[in-house]
Amino acid sequence: MPYSLDPADRPVVETEVKRSRFITRLRRADSVDDANALIARARRAEPDAGHHCFAYIVGDEPESRIERSGDDGEPGGTAGLPMLQALKGRDLVNVAAVVSRHFGGVKLGAGGLARAYSGAVTVAIDQTALRPRVRWEVCRLEADHAEAGRVESELRSRGYEILEVAYGRRAELTVACADPDEFASAVGDITAGRGRPERLRHIWR
């Protein structure tokens, strides 16, 4: 199951390795623009840092997910990629991480840098409450006007979210549910088998 951050969580975590300070910023990022904004914010907040390395994963759908990372002057593959692997290792999506490094005078070597950057991100993740990203189906259900109110009330009482109710020739209820088969069964109970929900699309929450 994928996880993400609450948009209200804005951790800034500092770790130290051989006198080098690593300032990690971890944020919810629902777009590439969100991720780039975090990178720019880190540069403004840490102007004396020598490197602002980043990694982000944007998109709930695996086939269209965007994954990018950057070393910002560190030896290739020693910063951004280990950070990205740390995010992927915790099944995170819609997330961006930036680690700003203040050099402490001691070279860490390629392996040491990779461990320091991935470790900095891992520490930040461990200090953040993660939320599961759940796929919800959006379904449409038609009902006669005379029973639409009762159907809506019954669905709400069973925990289903009514997104919209439209009245035309018949009432149309747009409903979000986590399990469409369970929802269809509930509709059958409520309507004595007359209701036939139709799947429209899915959303992630």
From TrEMBL:
GO terms for cellular component: cytoplasm. Belongs to the IMPACT family. Residues 18-124 form the Impact N-terminal domain. This is DUF1949 domain-containing protein. GO terms for biological process: regulation of translational initiation. Pfam families: DUF1949, Impact_N. Residues 141-194 form the UPF0029 domain. It comes from Mycolicibacterium brumae. InterPro entries: EFG_III/V (IPR035647), Impact (IPR023582), Impact_N (IPR001498), Impact_N_sf (IPR036956), Ribosomal_Su5_D2-typ_SF (IPR020568), UPF0029_Impact_C (IPR015269).
